[in-house]
Amino acid sequence: MTDLRDDVRQAFQERYGHKPLGIWSAPGRVNLIGEHTDYNEGFVLPFAIDRRTLVAAGPRNDSTLRIGSTFDDPDSLYMELELPDLHTWQPDGEGIDSSALEWAAYPAGVAWALSRYGADLSAVPGIDVMIDSNVPVGAGLSSSAAIECAVALALDDMWRLGLTRPQLAQVGRLAENDFVGAPTGIMDQSASLLGTPDHAVLLDCRSLDTESVPLGFREAGLTILVIDTGVKHEHATGGYGERRASCEKAALLMGVPALRDLSVDDLDRAEAKLSNETFRRLRHVVTENQRVLDAVAALRTNDHAALGELLDASHRSMRDDFEISTPELDLAVEIAQQNGALGARMTGGGFGGAAIALVPVDDVSRVHVAVDGGFAEHGFGQPETFTVTASEGAARDA
Questions:
Q1: 3-state secondary structure 20-48
Q2: How far apart are CA 150 and CA 138, in angstroms?
Q3: How far, in Å, CA of 332 to CA of 323, rounded?
Q4: Considering the chain, what percentage of its residues have pLDDT values greater than 70?
Q5: Taking the CA of residue 308 as centre, how many other CA atoms within 13 Å lie in the half-sphere pointing to its CB?
Q6: Whole-prediction pTM value?
Q7: Beta-carbon neighbour count of residue 395 at 10 Å?
Q8: Beta carbons within 8 Å of 332's beta carbon, 6+ residues apart
Q9: Which backbone phi and psi does 16 adopt, to 5 degrees?
Q10: What percent of the chain lies above the pLDDT cut of 90?
Q11: pLDDT in tens, 306-349
Q12: pLDDT for the residue 236
């Protein structure tokens, strides 16, 4: 973290010619279990990880928002927007083309979303923003939410809005849904803002109630190993939106507000009523919701073997019923299972990204070597493998 703080502070000064007022950061997240349940008003169990996005920010004397990053094209110093133009932006309306902003749409979208939570963008001062990060992009570890939450926390402080952490999570979701155009739920932002060390966050995505759940991995000699396949995914397009539409269709045909309102006891009725594909989408969400609750019960009794079995079942469901896995993700899960992991599953929205494995600390090297060898044997690109620990949520660092 110290190196990243120094890097982002130096990059800020080089780009903008003055020192930042402060540095804020937010973590990526691993979703332990509960995939595609969030927008179905169900349950999820993520935790904040020890990889973070940092934001250096400082005020301006005009109404301009300048957004730069250490990973941006060096020939393009920063993205420049006028806050009053953001204030009047409407989805599908005239004005700023948010799709043309690429990655800068995430921080710009946060500024816009804050206008829906009390910020008068025609009156607040402009801000210079510089972003640095060690959260892998496109790996299913929510690099986008880390940007949103760090920027939201920085702007909330600098504009003195006084929003709560749950409100800032809503800001991030609004930015991603409407401004960026990615139909995601609120899990990622909640984990990034509400995470605590050695705990997961049980989130009820209907009520938005949260509960801290101890993981107990360290005491049990276990760790979470992330296997980033290097296959990039994109939530604003493609299969993610199709899966969400299928879930909404299934809920409508079953006569319930959301798939949250169905249980495993409803599966026979659903199978008789729905097409095969729509039923399988529903079955994943319904059984995954139950797996989240079962995982919480297992953690509360330190039954990590049972947790591992739930991770395995979750992956099978995503592979077979929701059909969002890839050959690389399936291989990573299989190799981890064969080399000492208690359980493994893909994590994130799917169609690429990373798998996670619950592994005894003594077996991490064995899994790492086996995964590298297996990917090479199948002609896949070399994956990046690293452990993560449950860590603190978003904070001001300097």
A1: CCEEEEEEEEEEEECCCCHHHCCEEEEEE
A2: 18
A3: 16
A4: 97
A5: 21
A6: 0.91
A7: 14
A8: 227, 229, 344, 346, 355, 357, 371, 375, 383
A9: -110, -15
A10: 85
A11: 999 999 999 999 999 999 999 999 999 999 999 999 999 999 88
A12: 45
Kindly state the tokens that stand for 284: 């994943």
Active site residue 204: no
Reading the block at residue 150, the tokens are 């760090």
Output the six-digit token pair for 122.
């025609």
CA distance 271 to 279: 6
C-alpha torsion sign, points 322, 327, 329, 331: positive
Active-site pick, 132, 178, 188, 294: 188
Own/partner pairs, 159-164, CB within 8 angstroms, 24+ separation: 159/114, 159/119, 159/124, 159/125, 161/114, 161/117, 161/118, 161/119, 163/114, 163/117, 163/118
